[in-house]
Design a protein that fits this description.
Length: 220
């Protein structure tokens, strides 16, 4: 059972998210919060597997809450809810430790997919958000030469680590990566830890962004 916290300052939105999650028998909503401070306290009390956070909330927004949770409850994955017009927040949320990104206007099944992916320690970007992230990264690469730097960092990995990174960047869980590459899930976990350490990043989402910046692709 995947245990979830839902945080949004609008009660109607929280009710909607809770109703969508209730359609999956493998997901249980264990707590709700109306702002970032309440979300952090609720995570401390309930220790959910996933926190679904709205970006814009009073007192402390979702980005502040995500950054705090990364320090205090790293085992809790974060799915961030966004709306169009909030592009500047997306990369900030990624830097804060969020590993899932959804547009509120997207189909309900995306929420289910994101919760399962993040609970399985994978990153999840809804197609609409992914397109916007890629656009931002492309612009940033052109301005700062990050693509060249990213390639140099990725080139420092072993061939197997690059394979694992490419599949991680494609949103696969450790179990699926293991089945794809013929390895145990424990072996994959060891490779992922090595990849994060050698790339100098803190989480899978940041590693996935670096892989995209480097142009790393999954070999068919």
């Amino acid at each position: 059972m995947i245990r979830v916290l839902v945080a949004d300052d609008e009660p109607l939105v929280r009710a909607g998210v809770r109703a969508v999650l209730a359609t999956d028998p493998g997901i249980e909503t264990v707590a709700e919060a109306a702002d970032g401070h309440e979300a952090v306290e609720a995570v401390r009390r309930h220790r959910p597997d996933v926190a679904v956070l709205d970006i814009r909330m009073p007192r402390a927004d979702g980005i502040e809450a995500a950054a705090t949770l990364r320090r205090l409850a790293p085992a809790t994955g974060v799915v961030m809810l966004t709306t169009f017009g909030e592009d500047p927040y997306i990369l900030r949320a990624l830097d804060a430790g969020a590993t899932g990104f959804l547009v509120k206007s997207g189909p309900p099944e995306e929420l289910i997919s994101a919760v399962h992916a993040v609970a399985g320690q994978a990153a999840y970007l809804s197609p609409k958000v992914a397109a916007r992230v890629v656009a931002h990264l492309t612009a940033r690469q052109a301005a700062t030469g990050r693509a060249s730097e990213a390639r140099q960092r990725v080139d420092g990995l072993t061939p197997r680590e690059r394979e694992v990174l490419a599949l991680l960047a494609d949103g696969l869980t450790n179990g699926r990566i293991g089945r794809r590459l013929g390895m145990t899930e424990g072996t994959v976990k060891g490779h992922v830890s090595s990849v994060l350490r050698r790339l100098g990043v803190e989480n899978r989402a940041a590693a996935a962004v670096l892989a995209h910046e480097a142009g790393l692709r999954v070999t068919p």
